[in-house]
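Q: Hi! Curious about what Hypoxanthine phosphoribosyltransferase looks like structurally. Here's the sequence.
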Amino acid sequence: MDDLGDHDIVVLCVLKGGYQFCVDLVDKIKALSRNSNRTLPMRVHFIRLKSYLNDQSTEDLHIVGAEDLSFLAGKNVLIVEAIVGTGKTMKALLKHVESFSPKLIKVAGLLVKRVPHNSTCLPDYVGFEIPDRFVVGYALDYNEYFRDLNHICVISESGKTKYKI
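A: Let's find out. The predicted structure is below.
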C-alpha cells in the first residue's frame, strides 16, 4: 500500500495460473485498506498469457485480452502473476504494458524459480522462491490439469507422462 500510494490501482491478473493468487491478494489489500486510515480503490482486469506446451516454455507467447490497454494510461498498475521462471514472459508483458503509458508498474509474483539468468525481470514483490521444478496446484496447471488443488506441489515424471499432450 505504501508503494502504490493513495491512488487507485488497476490490478492486471495474469490468467489462468494467477487467478487464485490474485483473488487472495486483492482480498488482503482490501482488508488492509479497511483497517487503515487510507483506502486503495482497485479495478481488476484480466489478461491471459500462454507460453507452455507440456512442461516446456515455448518462444511463442500469446497475450489474450491485452490488445487495447489504453485505460492504463496514467494509472498505477499491479501485475499479479503466479510464477516467474526465466523472466522472459514477464519481460515481454512489461514491454507491452509500458506501451500504454501507465504512471507506475509493479509486479507481484507468488513464486519465483531459482533458474540461471532469471534476474532479467524479477517481480517487485515475491511470495516464495522455489527450485527449478514444474509445480501445479493453486490454479497452476499441467495441460489444464491440477488447477483445482488447494496446495502447490511438484508434478512427478509419471504424472507428466500420464497427462502429456
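A: A fun detail: The chain has three helices and eight strands.
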